[in-house]
Amino acid sequence: MFARSKQATVSDMRNESGNEIFDDLYLGVRAGGALRKKRRGELLTTEEMEALTRWQRLSPWRKGLAIGGFTAGTFGLGFTLGGLVFGRWRKPRAAG
User: Fold this and answer.
1) Which residue among 35, 47, 68, 82 is buried most deeply as judged by most CB within 10 Å?
2) pLDDT, tens digit (0-9, with 9 covering 90-100), for 24-35
């Protein structure tokens, strides 16, 4: 039996970076909720304080990627649902 190498392989890094994007997105949502509670003057839980601290420490390009991913996903979902609701499969109304 051979021992597994301690070096990261390309396939391992590909999966890891994909998961990190979703982790950053989720962290941003949690930090946004914590920031809203903080502005209202409500007490934060330790989990909310940790999420806010981690979001503040995140590099600007990772914040931008997380916000951009959220924006693109929201737009894509709205575009898809709008196409289904107002798409060609709907029967046109008779004029006059």
Assistant:
1) 35
2) 888 888 999 999
CA 93 to mean position of chain CA atoms: 39
pTM of the predicted model, to two decimals? 0.58
Q: How far is 63 from 65, CA to CA, in rounded Å?
A: 5
Helix axes 60-86, 10-40, angle to 10 degrees: 90
Burial class (CB in 10 A: 0-12, 13-18, 19+), 70: middle
Contact 28, 70 (CB under 8 A): yes
Spatial distance between the Cα atoms of 68 and 1, rounded to a whole number of angstroms = 45
